[in-house]
Specification:
mainly alpha; 2 helices; 0% strand
Length: 69
Amino acid sequence: MDRSTRIAEKLKRKGYCISRFRVAKIMRANNWVSKHKRKFKATTDSNHSYPVCRNLLNRNFNPSRLNEA
């Protein structure tokens, strides 16, 4: 799916009556380029064999009442 198609579909959902060719023409005339979404890449390996540090802060994530930190 090229960039003008995605933009045209979004504009149609918002109520504008416009074709992808017109969007492409407007984009070319203004030197506009769309940014592509990056593919999700998992960067954390939870199943590692490295030692885990102790919890030195002992933070309380279950407060007894509201607005208590």
